[in-house]
Write a structure and sequence with these properties.
single chain; 175 residues; 4-stranded mixed sheet; two-stranded antiparallel sheet; 7 helices
Length: 175
């Protein structure tokens, strides 16, 4: 009987430790680390709200990671992702606190991806709302122009970099 209690206790403790490991970091923890890094490196923070089912979210990530533009983003921003609006079978992957943060910046009903650009002190300096609503992953000429305008205001990316970013993001319209 003692062996059985020990075994049951051991299995419960083991399962709780795995559950703790699987829990995503909270939005507060993610932001605290991002703001500290941004302050240290003299950058701003891009917070991208996304979900695993979101094709445009994947396009946004691929575009920002494209070899021709990645350095521009890396040199000017600390980029973090927060998972929101997941399908019911993946709710456990959502970033705790991210939905409230998204709602605070009026992105809860805007569609994904949604991004907010913050300074290193946590003050919003831009978001993904353009003239027609959330530009999400910029693709059309107008959306990309609005995105470039945001980047001009929030970074030191030069004209060559902005042109490269324009080229990469414009490819999203046809894919």
């Amino acid at each position: 009987m003692k062996k059985m209690k020990f075994l049951v206790t051991f299995v419960l403790l083991l399962s709780m430790s795995f559950a703790a490991v699987a829990q995503p970091a909270s939005s507060d923890a993610i932001l605290k680390k991002a703001y500290a890094t941004a302050a240290k490196e003299h950058k701003n923070v891009i917070i991208i709200f996304h979900a695993s089912w979101c094709g445009w979210c994947k396009k946004m990530d691929r575009s920002m990671a494209d070899a021709s533009v990645k350095k521009y983003f890396d040199d000017n921003y600390v980029t973090v992702h927060m998972t929101v609006q997941e399908s019911p079978d993946k709710k456990n992957e959502e970033t705790p606190g991210a939905a409230a943060f998204l709602d605070k910046y009026k992105g809860g009903k805007a569609g994904l991806p949604f991004f907010v650009i913050m300074d290193s002190k946590g003050e919003k300096i831009a978001d993904s709302f353009g003239e027609g609503g959330n530009i999400g992953c910029p693709a059309s000429e107008k959306e990309v122009a609005q995105f470039i305008s945001m980047l001009k205001k929030t970074s030191t990316i030069d004209a060559e970099g902005l042109a490269a970013i324009t080229t990469v993001f414009r490819k999203n319209e046809n894919h």
